Amino acid sequence: MLIAPIFRSVAFEFRFKANRSQFVWDNAFHYGFLVATFAQGMVLGAFVQGFQIEGRSFTGGTLDWLTIWQAANAVFMPLALADTAYAGWVFRGKVAEDIGSGGYGP
Fold this sequence. Notes:
Order of helices and strands: HHEEH
Structural class: mainly alpha
Oligomer: single chain
Strand order of the largest sheet: 1-2
Number of helices: 3
Number of strands: 2
Helix content: over 70%
């Protein structure tokens, strides 16, 4: 989860410096985004589901992080973030149209 944002930042920077290999850095940025959000979904699923503890000690197993709930969160997290980004683009376009026409309503 820590390597994906670094990889994404490097890909974003090198995309503008590359001429022939720009598509490679585009794909690197895309997959860096997917890996980071997939990992965030796994972590969110683990926290929502909870941990097995007794007293103040962890009593769960090694593969407790691999359940259907965490996998579903990991799959749907990139979709939720993409939906949020799309809603922001639509909202910005609508606000820009309203400001350009001089009003804020329909």
